[in-house]
Structures are given as C-alpha cells and as structure tokens.
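__Record contents__

***
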Amino acid sequence: RSDGWKTYEGELIWRDYAQNILCQFPSYPEETYRDAIDDAKLWRNPNRGHIIQEELEAWQMGRTGYPIVDAGMRQLWAIGWMHNRVRMIAASFLIKHLLIDWRHGERWFWDTLVDADYASNGTNWQWVAGTGVDSNMFPRIMAPLSQSEKFDAAGYIREWVPELADLPDSEIHDPSDDCRPDDYPDKIIGHRAARERALQAYRDMKDG
C-alpha cells in the first residue's frame, strides 16, 4: 500500500481511538484525566492575570513572535484550518512555552476549526499536554524554530505572515532584531527560557 494510504489509515485509527476514549470518559474534552497536574496548579490562568490573558490573545491572533506558530494561528483564523503538524506546534507552544491550561486552546480550536471533532480535539490536546489516558507527553517540548526549518520549505510563513515575506531564508524562521519588521512582535518568551520554566514546573509538580 502507498504511504498516503498508510497515513490515512493511521488517522482513521486515531479518530476511532478518540471516539473510544470519549465513550468511556464523556467529559474528557473538558476535564484533565491526570488530576495531579491540576492539583499541582501547573497552569498559568488567563482569568487571573492581565499579562497571561494578553499572551493567550497573542497566541490566538498569531502575534507570538514565533513565525511558524503565528502562521498557523493566522491561517486558522482566516480559513478555519491548518495542517496537523502546525496544530501540534501551536498546541505545544500554548501549553509548554506559555504554561496556559490546555482547555483554553481546546476551546479555541473547537470554535475556529471547520473540521473540529469533539472527541479528537480533546484527545489531541490532552495528548500534547500529557494529561490524558495515554503516555505523558508534557516533558516533550517542541522547538518552534527547528520545526519550522524542518517542515516549512515552501513559503508557508511568507504566505500567512506577510510582514516577513521579504526576509531572506536565513531570517524567515527566526528574525533577528536587525531584520525584524517594526510591525512584527518580539517573542513573548525565548525558547530556552520557556523550556526550562516548563521543565522546572513539571519537576516541582512531581516532587510535590
């Protein structure tokens, strides 16, 4: 069988897996399965801080300062769809770079995706967050820059983040201060600092 068929078959299996989880846990898209994470207060709550709310809104509107994340979120807002890889990158960024509760992302995707599926949406978000019934994925933190360099060779960022369209290939994935246009935001948080903050929060949760 072709690689395309194998990919399609795998997605059907994942869809059925999500449906099975929802049948067993009807509140799965709304309630963390691993209670310890909620109990440890791992998440930064946008409802309790103006800065955190601004960070959530920057993610929603594609203004994080990370071009691959911003391209995906702008595409989502414009046409209600983005590729699965970019969905994972954007979800990982919200959860691990910003430490914002996965349910805020789940609700946003549910409201904006034209192909939103209740079971799959909740399952995918809990999988990325490491809060679900399957393996704990929280310590796996996707690096937006390396993901962008690996998967965007065809101008995806240039299409959806037009203010960066004229940058050279060497700058498009991570614009330097000298090349960043005035109308494109600085990074909300640096990748290294975000990664260490997330891993430290995870260690504190486990030790607690």
In short: Residues 3-207 form a domain with the DNA Cyclobutane Dipyrimidine Photolyase, subunit A; domain 3 fold (CATH 1.10.579.10). The mean pLDDT is 93.
